[in-house]
User: What shape does this take?
Amino acid sequence: MSTTADALREEVRQRYAQAAATASAGRAACDCGGGACCEHVSGESGFGEALYDAEERGELPDAAVLASLGCGNPVAVAELREGETVLDLGSGGGIDVILSAKRVGPTGVAYGLDMTDEMIALARQNAREAGISNAHFLRGMIELIPLPANSVDVVISNCVINLSTDKPAVLTEIARVLRPGGRVGVSDVVAEDRLPAEDRAERGSHVGCIAGALSRGEYVAGLEAAGFEDVSVEFTHEVIDGMHGAIVRARKTETAGLPVIAPASKAGCC
Ligand SMILES: C[S@@+](CC[C@H](N)C(=O)[O-])C[C@H]1O[C@@H](n2cnc3c(N)ncnc32)[C@H](O)[C@@H]1O
Assistant: This one.
């Protein structure tokens, strides 16, 4: 990992540690100004708690709602079923993990993974307050997921993959931990294909979830290269000129990881 990538990651970690402190103090993390995912918008925004309906917000502790920094609602699109194992990449204050844990019920499990200690502490407190016992928060990097291969049914994430400095590693890790046939339901900021990386960087910062965003074509190609099929990227709302909140869906191929069996040679042949 280059020094630039390390420095960027540290900037992201510090920024979201500050956002966790803001939410813990009873203020909306999105209102704390400068540098969080919602820095580009004000009022009725395409980020944060406004993306959840009143019923969902009612299921959550106040601090989990206040910590919401996403750009979509992945739980609403993931079609979670009882008993499933779900992993949320960059789980922040735990909003999507708590909702997922409720959807998969006591026979299922919801994992949250985040690199920021302050966010992990806040998420654990929020899950306790919500009375959830099937949610587990892991400290670690989404580029090196601390779970075994083929152990997860659904991977969700809310406005985090754009923050990674190594997106091919993230997509490869998602493919590794998912069971064959497992699905991806991710919300993220995604650029129109017409915008080269320099144009994205002119529109906002990396920690602000803009400069690091993939284009739609890059997302599709990256997922396909990592072993996914049925890939789609659907724009839901424009967050800044040419850049959108989007829902990214994909399925890990059923045959992924199976040994390739050579066709049996014909008896007597040759
Ligand atoms: C924009 S916030 C989104 C939080 C949460 N998903 C939500 O919707 O409120 C980004 C979160 O991802 C975490 N994060 C960013 N890059 C990460 C990485 N490479 N590995 C693990 N966590 C990361 C940050 O610590 C932060 O909690």
